[in-house]
Amino acid sequence: MASNSPLHETRAVSLGGYGSLVPYHGPLSIDPGTPGKSHILHLPLDQPTPEGILNHLDDVAEHLKIDTRRGRLFYSVHYSDYGWNGSGVEQLRQDLQNPFEVGEELRRTLESEYNRELGMHRPCFTILSNAEYGLFYMVLRGGKRYLDDEGEEWEIAYYARSGVLIDQPVLSWPNVEKVVKNDGGPITQHTTDISTESIELDKQLLEGVYPLSQSVSNDADIIGGRNPYSANSADSGDSDIKDSINQTSHLTFRVNGGTIGFENEEAYRVGGMAAYRPVEITMWGHPVVICQPMCDAITN
Question: Rounded CA gap, 18 and 252, in Å?
Fold first, then answer.
């Protein structure tokens, strides 16, 4: 479901909105399927402007070794009933600065394509990248900060939550103090359960595929396509994960083993997938459900 807008040629559009699946294709320093409690190290962040968010990412990249490049940092933008998935700090910079305008444009395109009304409300971001000891995350809820009494002049501002999801408490991580700036005091690490879901699927061809420029190199090794999964394929009872699967119309997929070029592939085959939900990380009441969809290329 690629949009006709040039703004979305490298972004994967999806119906679903708040609580939809958040695909992540970067490396992981944690195993979300490990039984027992995981831990969250919170990175405090006041209500920032887009520039403040980018500065925070710069700090985390410098001190906690996250990679903000395309193909390493992934993010999802969700409105009430739709959204898109992007990659890399340069795409993120554009989307942070004008999410209301881009959201309105995309809503008109999708409403015309699907002949249905779509709710917009606030833009919400989920940003993910691998850190030194875990998975860095940032969730953002956008709003308008009015600059005059008439409400004609405004700027975008975000409510923000940021942290690192880790398997075990980190006893010594000096670089964290340069991000948290706690003047040498103890760094609190909270515990969280992680609900994991295995979604079983017989091997089948992926439908509605299109290329995306979301890899570190120029290879099209990440593609967009229709979501083939459903809650009926999930093997446990986490209703939040099941609802998230059902309401997501499209996903991004990493092609196993690279690709010889999108135009040269005959088709793409997809199988099972794991999804996980860190219980204490939410999007203001909506679950954050992370998945890592993959597929195999079928070549002539």
Answer: 17
Helix axes 89-97, 99-114, angle to 10 degrees: 90
Q: How far is CA 86 from CA 13, 36, 67, 197, in A?
A: 9, 31, 15, 24
Q: Which two tokens stand for residue 135?
A: 């998975």
Of 100 and 299, which is predicted with more confidence? 100
What phi and psi, each to the nearest 5 degrees, are found at residue 20?
Answer: -70, 165
pTM over 0.85: yes
Instruction: State the first-to-last Cα distance of the chain, in angstroms, to the nearest integer.
Output: 25
Region 254-267 average pLDDT? 81
* Integer Cα distance of 253 and 296 in angstroms: 9
Strand partners, 197: 275
Q: Is pLDDT of 300 > 90?
A: no
Q: What is the arrangement of strands in the sheet containing 294-299, beginning at the earlier edge strand?
A: 204-205, 265-270, 294-299, 250-255, 222-226, 210-212
Given a contact cutoff of 8 angstroms between Cβ atoms, the answer to whether 201 and 229 are in contact is yes
Q: Say which residue the tokens 């999801």 belong to.
A: 165
